[in-house]
Write a structure and sequence with these properties.
alpha/beta; 2-enoyl-CoA Hydratase, Chain A, domain 1; N-(1-d-carboxylethyl)-l-norvaline Dehydrogenase, domain 2; 3 domains; eight-stranded mixed β-sheet; six-stranded mixed β-sheet; globular; binds 3-hydroxybutanoyl-coenzyme A; binds 1,4-dihydronicotinamide adenine dinucleotide; isomerase activity; enoyl-CoA hydratase activity; Enoyl-CoA_hydra/iso; lipid degradation
Length: 698
Amino acid sequence: MMASVSYETVGRVAVVTVDNPPVNALSRVIRSGLSDAFGRFQTDESADIAVIIGAGRMLIGGADISEFGKPPQSPSLPDVILQIEQSAKPVVAAIHGMALGGGLEVALGAHYRIAAPGTRLGLPEVKLGIMPGAGGTQRMPRLVGADTALKMITSGTPVTEAEALQSGLIDQICEGVDIREAAIDYAQSLLSDNAPARPISGLPRATDSEGVIQQWRAKLQKSLRGEVAPLVAVDAVEASVQKSFAEGLKEERRLFLHLMDTPQRAGLIHAFFSERAVAKLPEISDIAPRDIARVGVIGGGTMGAGIATSAVLNGLAVTLVERDSEATDKARATIAGNLDAAVKRGKLKAEQRDAILTDALKTVTDYGALSGADLIIEAVFESMDVKKEVFAKLDEILPRGAILATNTSYLDVNEIATTTARPEDVIGLHFFSPAQVMKLLEVVVADKTAPDVVATAFALAKTLGKTAVRAGVCDGFIGNRILSHYRTAADHMVLDGASPYQIDKALTDFGFAMGPYQVSDLAGLDIGYATRQRKAADAHPRDRYPTFADALYHKGWLGQKTGHGYYLYEKGDRKGRPDPEVEQIIAQARKEAGTSPRTFSDDEIVRRYMAAMVNEGARVVDEGIAQRPLDVDVVFLYGYGFPRWRGGPMKYADMRGLDSILADIRTFAETDDHFWSPAPLLEKLVAEGRNFDSLNQR
Ligand code: 3HC
Ligand code: NAI
C-alpha cells in the first residue's frame, strides 16, 4: 500500500490522517504530505482547527529508520513540526496505539493532545543510538519538566496514557476507543471555548533548580557501560533549560547529527533489523504451525523449572515429569517462587498465580500423564544415554504429531532423534538460563525435522515472548559452539600470564555484561568441567588444557553456588572479589605447562577474545549452522550479554574491518597456528573486499 497523508473536513475540523502501514513511519512522503496538509489548513477557510491522527494501529511509530544513514531528504521532520506548531489555528494530536520518537514529537508540535486508553507514548531513540531530533529534547522539558523529560528520553521506555496525563504530556484521555470520534468532539469543544493555538515552544524554559541534570548525568555515567546516546541526550536537555527555544533546537540538531554518525547508531540499528530478520525463514514462510496448548516438560531442575515457568506465565498448560516426589516438590516450589517474583514485579496477579498452581501446572512422576501433550521439552541431565532413554519412552507414549524437543546444550539432536520412530517430530529447543527471563531460543533443526515443526518452534517463541534463531546441528549449535572457542582463547591467555580478573575487567569495559570467568562462576564450574570431560576423547595433541580450571573444580570451588570459584563470595554477595589463592593455583598450572608468563594489555585481551569469536562465527555461518551472520549477532545479543550498541560480534567485525580481524588472527598464529587458523570464509571475504553484511539477506 502507498504511504499517504489525507485531508478532509468534518464540520469545521480538518482531519489530517497519516497512513503508512505498518507503523505510519515518517518517511519522506509522509513528511511532505504533512507539510502540504498544514499548508492547506492555513488557507482553508472552512476549517478552524485541525486534528492529526494515524490510520490503523497507531498514531506514528517514529521517523523512518530505513532512511537512516542515507542522505537526508527535505522537508526535514523538525521543519514540518515547526510548521505544525506555528499554525495560527489550533491543532490537536489524536493519539492511539503508540506515539513513539518522531511520532511523539509530532504530537508535541500540536497544541493539544488527547489519547485513547491503552496508548503508549515514548521517545525510544536512545535504543537506536540516537536521541530525539525533531524538537523532543526542547519541547518535552518545557511541557513536563526536566526530570520527567530526562527519565523518558534517557531510558527510551514509553509511558502509559495515565502516566502521560499525570505529567501533563497529554490533556485528556478519551472514553471508549474510537479516537477519531473523540478527537473531533474534543476539537469541537475547544472551538466552542475559543481555545487558542498553544505552542509548547512559547512556554517558559524548564528550570534546573534542584540540579537534576547533573544527577541524571552522574547516574548514567555509572550505569551505561560504554553507551553514549543517553548522555548526549542529557546535554540536549541541558540546552533546553539554558538556551532560547531556537538556540536549543539548533543544539539538538547538532547533537542528533553527531549521534547519527556514530558506530553505536549503526550497531543498534543493525540489532533492530536483525532481531526482526531472524524470524523470516523462507523454509517456513507459508507453513502453518501445529497447535500447542499442552506442554510436557521432562526434568524440573534449573532449566526444566524455568521453561515450565515461562510456559505457564504465557498461558500454556504444563505437565512436568520428575524422577521422584522429592524432585517434583522441589520443581513445584521453584516454579511457585518464580511466579511469586512475577507477582512482586506486577507482571502477574496473585489470583492468576494461584490459578496457575492449581489448574495449569501438574507435577508428576508418571510419564503416562503426558499422553495428551502437543509438545514435550526434555531438560534432563546433559547425558546422551539418559536423553536417549527418555526419548525412547516418549516415542512409546505420545501419538505421532506430538513434538519431541530437547533442551540439550551441546548434544547431537540427530542422534537423539534416532531413538524414535518419528525423527520428523524431533527438534532442539535450546533455552537459556534463567529460562523465564532470557529472551533467546535457539531452534535446532535436525536433518529430518519437519518444516511445520520448525514453524511451531518459532510460533512457540512468540507465545513465550522470546526471539527464536534457527541453528543447525553441531556440538553447541551457534552460541555454545562459538562460546567454547573464545572461552578457550581466554584460558590460553590465563595460561600465558593474564589474570582472569584482568580479562573480565577488559571485557566488561568493552561492554559485555560479564567477563568469561564471572560467567563460569555464575553457571557453575562443574559445567565447564563436564564439557571438558566429554570432549577429552576428541582432544588433539596440540590442544592446550586449562589444568587450573580442573584444579578449582577438584577443590569443590564451583562458583557462586559454593561461595568460591574464580572469585570469593562473601555471604549473600554476588559480586565476588579476586582471590590470591586462585592466582597461586594458576601460577602452578603455568609452571606445569612450562609457560613463562607475560603481560597482556587490555587491548590485546579484547582483540584475542573477539578474533576467536568472529573466526568461529565465520565457520558457523560457512557450515550453514547459522543461516546468516546476523543470526550469530542476535544469538550473542540475546543469549550472551554482548553489548547491543556494538550490534553483535559479526557487525563489530564489519565495523572494525575484516582485514583487521584477519591480520590479528595471522599474528596470533605465529605463536600458535593450531588454535589460530583463519576461517576460510573470513579469508574469502577479505580477498573479495566484502564484509559479513553482504551475506545478510533480510
Ligand atoms: N521505521 C521504519 N520501519 C519501522 C519502524 C520505523 N520507525 N518501526 C517499525 N518498522 C518496521 C519493522 O522493521 C517491521 O518491518 P518488517 O515487517 O519488514 O519486519 C514492521 O515495521 C513492523 O514492526 P514490528 O514487527 O516491530 O511491529 P510491532 O508491532 O512488534 O512493534 C513498534 C511496533 C513498537 C512501533 C516497533 O516497531 C518499534 O519499536 N519501532 C521503532 C520505534 C522507534 O524506535 N521509533 C523512533 C524512531 S527514531 C526517531 O523517531 C527519530 C526522531 O526523533 C527524529
Ligand atoms: P539440572 O541438573 O538442574 O536438572 C536436571 C533434572 O532432570 C534433575 O532435576 C533430574 O532429577 C531430572 N531428571 C534426570 N533424569 C530424569 C528422567 N529420566 N526423568 C525425569 N527427570 C529426570 O540440569 P539443568 O541445568 O536444568 O540442565 C538440563 C538440560 O538443559 C541439560 O541438557 C543442559 O545441558 C541443558 N541446558 C542447561 C543450561 C543451564 O544453564 N543450566 C542452559 C541451557 C540448556
